[in-house]
Design goal:
4-stranded antiparallel β-sheet, globular, alpha+beta, 3-hydroxy-3-methylglutaryl-coenzyme A Reductase, Chain A, domain 2, Alpha-Beta Plaits, single chain
Length: 386
Amino acid sequence: MVTTSGLGKLYEKTVKERIEAVAGACNLPPGAVAELESSMDPAMAKILDLMVENVIGAFQIPLGVATNFVINGKERLVAMATEEPSVVAAASNAARMARSHGGFVADPVESLMIGQVQLVDVDDAGAAIATIKGNEKRIIDVANEQDPVLVKAGGGARRVDAFKVDTSVGAMVDVHVVIDCLDAMGANAVNTMAEKVAPLLCDITGGRPLLRIISNLAVHRVARARATFDKELLGGSEVVAAVIQAVEFANHDMYRAATHNKGIMNGASAVVRATGNDTRAVEAGAHAYAAWGHPYRPLTRFRVDPAGNLLGEIELPVAVGIVGGATKAHPMAQLCLRIMEIDGAQTLSQVVASVGLAQNVAALRALAAEGIQKGHMKLHARKLGR
């Protein structure tokens, strides 16, 4: 039984002192304390203690490597961090089905993120929007003053958009500062720029800035990939036809579409996690994009080519970086980038989208051909030692 959760100033203690404090409050046995202490060596403890608050241990997730991927003509091993059985094997198998047709082709991806400034108490939203557009250069200049390093490297604020938002408490103006983050995910730079342009927006419009923060709906950072999956390797024409029927079900049924897209994120999020990027941001953006401008629908599309093979395409907003944050701080994230030979955020986005497409095909094939549980539960049973 927990005696108290009021462990004052736990953040000021060392990792060892925190473990002792938590163990005392929870009456943990010596074995549990030893397990916490052995979950990270002293060097890793120092790294993790800088990443989040009140660290007492490390929670390990399996790191696997998906095989068979060819993306834009380059052979790639793909690092995937996931606790779910069958994900790595499924991605590898689907990638094998695409190899004989050249693998995955992924389009270039811009690293553009949106910094939002919410303006409230606006007398005339239309006039405010016109004023914002008339002062776009001033706003961009103020934003870029906040990150001269990013600007010098070729990034920075690119444009300013503004929209009227009608709400139950009156009209508001949604200001988008569109920023090229280059090889960073961009949250820190974008948030700083949004904060700094807010006073100027107040001065020129008379509105009151309220929220000033990045948007995780990265509609300007969409990764697109496609591949041809071999008919015979999938299991023949009947399986291909069944996959098309399953996709049509998802196209017209939101309950199925949500699970369809979850299967995509099984693969995409595993790569995002392995590289120290923000899985919650990517997942939030993906599901919001699935409903952007239309009812919620799948993030992938499929059709059959003249030879009967399955053609698949994916559109997925992928806000990831290879510099800054946990990606830079965590040695395993750096190692995963090295294994995958990632040379920039664009390449990582292309890999994430390709893996998401492969994962989706593997899940659809399993569902249509044999039922998802057969292979999944076999691996699950192995995990439980049965």
